[in-house]
Amino acid sequence: MPELPEVETIVRALREGGRGGEALPGHRIEAVDVSWARSVAEPSVEGFTRQVVGQRIEAVTRRGKFVVLHLDRQALLIHLRMSGDLRVESTGEQTQPHDRIRFFLSGGLSLVFNDPRKFGRVWLVDDWQNTLAGLGPEPLDEAFTVGELAQRLRVTRRMIKPLLLDQTFLAGLGNIYTDEALHLARIHPLAPAWKLSTEQVARLWGAIRSVLMEGIRRNGASIDWVYRGGEFQHHFLVYQRAGMPCQGCGSPIQRIVVGQRGTYFCPVCQPPWEG
DNA sequence: CACGAGACCTGTTCGC
DNA sequence: TGCGAACAGGTCTCGT
Fold this sequence. Notes:
The protein is α+β, with helices and mostly antiparallel strands. It has 2 domains: 4-131, MutM-like, N-terminal (N-terminal domain of MutM-like DNA repair proteins); 146-265, Helicase, Ruva Protein, domain 3 (Orthogonal Bundle), CATH 1.10.8.50. The protein has helices spanning 4-16, 45-52, 128-131, 146-154, 160-165, 175-184, 198-217; strands spanning 29-34, 40-42, 57-63, 66-71, 75-79, 85-90, 99-105, 109-114, 121-125, 254-258, 261-265. It is elongated and about 60 Å long. The chain binds a DNA duplex through residues 1-3, 6, 38, 65, 79-83, 98, 115-120, 156-159, 162, 165, 167, 174-177, 220-221, 223-227, 239-240, 259-262.
């Protein structure tokens, strides 16, 4: 899936125009066509269609990996999960394979939700903040300090990698950026979160932020046919580099499975924890 | 509470 | 060439 940097890249394009599409704010939703019903999480497809039509898109923001379309009366939350994507095109452009929802907008525009694997979901809600209240902090917010990270790490008994993937712990990290951040911080993915030293926590805080900012700067990673345009994939230090030499020490990058996710790390630069 | 397995899905790549 | 297995950016639910 798109992680925070990919979602941020998409959100900026929807907000300001770009990636081949026009900016959304100011346009009104005139009709909707849902071709895969389960892409709509809430409410029912009927209710969704009835309520969303007629609303105007006021703003586009991001919270964690959610795209938030602020409408005049409600909010449209979109989670792209593994393979979802959003594109803006002129209505009349040819339908693409795996198009799941098309929003017909004023001015002859369409917003299309495309999702080959059908894991993505959209919600139409009255109070988006309430719906997303369970998410952890935004890693790039000023409010997310090294002190807050340290405090949250202290009160868990979990391994660090699955913890960082937990969106209620921190919002926005996924499999790629977690592995990259742990490598930069020189922390083993299986390390017990509560046993990290003060120095390790400080490095992790900096690594999470720098890896996310770098991802955004490079317009995200496009490692397959989705999320075209990003180029962060050319800068991975460990992700999908099993057997290739570590940039730091030259030893081969190792792949293990953690929480059913492929996990890449350097066994020398990210040694097993003490004790 | 923490963790693993299975489910939800389709497409691509890898190994024989 | 063909075919099945493994794998993929995520998250939810259930059982231990």
